[in-house]
Amino acid sequence: MTESILLSVEDGLARLTLNRPERLNAFDASMAAAWTRVVQDVVRRDDVGAVLLTGAGTSFCAGGDVAQMATTMSDGGEIAQLATTINRGITALTASDKPVVAAIHGATAGGGLGIMLATDYVVAGRSSRVGSRYANVGLTPDLSVTAHLARAVGERRALQLVLSDLMLTADEALRWGLVAEVVDDDDVVTRAEQVAAVWLNGATKAYGRAKQLIRQSPFNSFDVQLEEEARAIGESFDTSEAKRRIAAFAEASSRKRGGTP
């Protein structure tokens, strides 16, 4: 049986691939369990410094497998349990100290929008389309869409997206702030790899901790968030990576001022 979530780890980069291409990578119960199991494993691994998420086939992710829901699920409780299972993986991903880049192409809709929003940097192929479309099948948003969307694009645009069948083009998604970059379709994964390489070749742990600070800020009061920032920069300062980089920066600054080489 083909794995619905593929994982490989090399040189600090974990590559996660949604792998139900025949269903546009839509989630069924088996894929939901695999998603959470794989993500929870990845975020605990010491040999992983960054994550690249993409989808096999012609699309990134079409959300939940509605056709299968119609034939195999008897009530809303089963749908809620499916969402809860996927949510555990989303929570692990967003709370982790691993920065995550998504390489999206084709359609990203429904719960696929939530999966995309759970990543930290999105590279989109030029032919990508991004939307909500829950109401088209009589459902409400899940998989972090209502938790993340308004913070990403503002309340008015979030409402516009979930209260219509609008599918944004890649360039529109860029203007809205849903994606960070738009590149040619053939270059999506390569560009995402380059983004991850910057994290891995730089101060990887500092990038990861900065991601955590941004992600946790909506849940903290202003004073608590400032305390968290102060604690984090103090902890960062004590790392060997920071000491090496600070010393190099100070030396370079001294040279520019005409100090002792």
UniProtKB/TrEMBL annotation:
Q: Which GO terms describe its molecular function?
A: catalytic activity
InterPro entries the record matches: ClpP/crotonase-like_dom_sf (IPR029045), Enoyl-CoA_hyd/isom_CS (IPR018376), Enoyl-CoA_hydra/iso (IPR001753)
Which protein family is it in? Belongs to the enoyl-CoA hydratase/isomerase family.
Superkingdom of origin organism: Bacteria
Q: Name one Pfam family in it.
A: ECH_1
What is the name attached to this protein's record?
Enoyl-CoA hydratase
